[in-house]
Design a protein that fits this description.
The chain has helices spanning about 5-15, 35-45, 50-65, 70-80, 85-100, 110-115, 120-135, 160-175; strands spanning about 20, 25-30. With about 180 residues, the protein is mainly alpha-helical. The radius of gyration is 20 Å and the shape is elongated.
Length: about 180
């Protein structure tokens, strides 16, 4: 048995049990346990299986409206695909989930991941979208080729036209989001 098979088997073993919700008292079937889907999504993301990872993150986000990390992972996946409009919506959804449920984190065992999560990643990702958009990265471009194919307008030796000046200003302004 390979390491990947072992990892999936362990995740299934851990997250496929039935548990009682301490707040409502209802039993949660393992297949309706959002944290299990989130952890499986993280596993698939770590081995670069983004389609599988996205599927598990979507399921986790659907099952648990408090799971801001699942929607944040979906947003980060959209950034990797240069779908910045979708990414921004998902990151806004993550912030909304965090703000709406942060006071209740810790009431459930599965909230440990949410408590340890870094909400600052959402703000970083939003700044990254702003920067990549200002840099002129579009869906048809390959982010991995950046900055090789793109030229920074503020490094130009000749006078800049209006479009280049605007882009230069947007690039400089977008850097503020990282600090």
């Amino acid at each position: 048995m390979e390491v990947n098979d072992n990892a999936l088997e362990i995740l299934d073993l851990i997250y496929h049990k039935t548990e009682k919700d301490p707040i409502t008292g209802t039993e949660i079937e393992g297949s309706n346990y959002a944290e299990g889907y989130y952890q499986r999504g993280r596993y698939f993301a770590s081995i670069k299986e983004s389609i599988q990872a996205r599927r598990f993150f979507e399921k986790a986000a659907t099952l648990d409206p408090a799971h801001y990390l699942a929607s944040m992972e979906l947003g980060e996946n959209a950034i990797r695909l240069a779908n910045f409009g979708e990414a921004d919506k998902l990151l806004n959804e993550s912030l909304k989930r965090f703000e709406n449920f942060k006071q209740s984190y810790g009431a459930r065992e599965e909230d440990e991941t949410l408590i340890q999560g870094n909400v600052g990643r959402i703000y970083f990702d939003k700044a990254r979208i702003q920067y990549l958009s200002a840099a002129g990265i579009h869906e048809k471009d390959k982010i991995t080729e950046f900055p090789g194919r793109k030229i920074y307008p503020f490094r130009a030796r000749a006078a800049m036209d209006t479009v280049a000046k605007t882009r230069s200003m947007e690039l400089k302004n977008s850097l503020e989001g990282f600090f």
